[in-house]
Amino acid sequence: MxxxxxxxVAADVDGTLTEGISFVLDIDAIKALRELERYGIxxxxxxxxxxxxxxxxxxxxxxxxxxxxxxxxxxxxxxxRELVVDEELCNVAKEAAEILxxxxxxxxxxxxxxxxxxxxxxxxxxxxxxxxxxxAQKAEEILREFxxxxxxxxxxxxxxxxxxxxxxxxxxxxxxxxxKRFGIPxxxxxxxxxxxxxxxxxxxxxxxxxxSDAQDVLKKHADIVxxxxxxxxxxxxxxxxxxxxGLSS
Length: 249
Hints:
The two termini are 23 Å apart. The chain has helices at 27-38, 51-61, 87-104, 133-145, 171-182, 199-204, 216-221, 230-244; strands spanning 8-12, 42-46, 67-69, 74-76, 81-83, 110-111, 122-125, 153-157, 161-166, 189-193, 207-210, 224-225. It has two domains: 3-83 and 170-245, 3-Layer(aba) Sandwich (Rossmann fold), CATH 3.40.50.1000; 86-166, Alpha-Beta Complex (Hypothetical Protein Ta0175, Chain: A, domain 2). By secondary structure, it is of the alpha/beta class. The strands form three sheets. It has a five-stranded parallel sheet, with helices on both faces. The protein has eight helices and twelve strands. Keywords: Carbohydrate metabolism, Hydrolase, Magnesium, Metal-binding. InterPro entries: HAD-like_sf, HAD-SF_hydro_IIB, HAD_sf, PGPase. Belongs to the archaeal SPP-like hydrolase family.
């Protein structure tokens, strides 16, 4: 593990650049992100959010790399955008999400307000505001009964929602697509996250980083676990990276 080789940082947003698992960006994380970019270390924003949300974050945070949106179902920038799976499969995922909502709405689950702008990953928000892995498992069983799993549709959990999407989608796949586009090897990538849906990205990277309040499955596979949670943890890692690169201000 050699931090001095890192040229690109893939950063999850919710729970990694925010204050805890809230939707409020952490000031220290923003400053750290800007410092990385100032020294030429490109930051890829990686999120389960829709493209308009992630693209807006990119513009106002000032990141230079393309984004990964909808949990890796798509990648893009202001000048280009593409899905990593067939559009037909995305239509099946949308249909499956609508069926799932009909079943779960009686228990208080609601569609994400972003769904009208989503292309392939359709989210349902928990009535409690927090999602457990068991919620995703129960949702998959419902889709199994309706025959959607055999069509390659799966349910993944973030901390705020369950996501109905094609099985091939993943944050790691999206990040890898961007790295190949720019000819950057995986060993020059560090990835930072907090939740189970960041796992494939963490495994893919030359250096995988979990913030201290990350879910256990992520910390188990990470090369580095930060001493601080969420955005403060990202800021700590950015400082350590700059120090290893001899770029500390």
